Amino acid sequence: MDPDDDLPPTDAAAALRLIQDQRAATVRRFDPDARLLYWPWGVAWLVGFGLLFLRFSPGERELLRLPGWLPLTVLFTLLLAAAAVQAVVSARAHGQVTGDSARRGRWYGCAWGLGSVSIYAGLGRITEHLPHDLAVLLWSATAVGLTGALHMAGGAIWLDRDLFRLGVWISVINLAGAFAGPGWPALVVAVTGGGGILVTGALAGRRQRQRP
Fold first, then answer.
1. What predicted TM-score, i.e. pTM, was given to this entire model?
2. In a domain, 12, yes or no
3. Which residues of the chain carry a pLDDT beneath 70?
């Protein structure tokens, strides 16, 4: 190894390039691939809610003969898998970050966890007294509505336009699905919700790759 390789650059342009390269490397290190943060959720919504629509279509029809427990089991399994992927990716990228940014991330994660558990606990006590089609509608509208609201909150916290816009989109399609009536929200959420998440991930990933 040439000992001169460890010496600082003597040319101002070379020094500037070195600073820019180090800055870019740091940004890449602490900026996880957006596709890994969005796409697992998009697949979970597309497949999970898609099966829910095929099994419990409008008018209590079965477009695809499946056990009644299977669609929700698949949906929650895929959601847990997506949450695990996001946790691993975020931990690798931000595990050594401290200060206000790390605290915001922890508190935001607590909002997701506690908010979801508290709402699902309440829904479990209410939906057992409702007809099946209305119970599915209430579960879907509430869970998707919570997701849209928390996405908008996350976008506001980190000034992330992609996340905020996705939250607005999810909230709008949730309203459309709820007004469409029992059976339809699952289709709306699967196609436009899951598809919207996949598109958002693709666009965010492309912007990351184009970033100097």
1. 0.79
2. no
3. 1-31, 93-98, 212
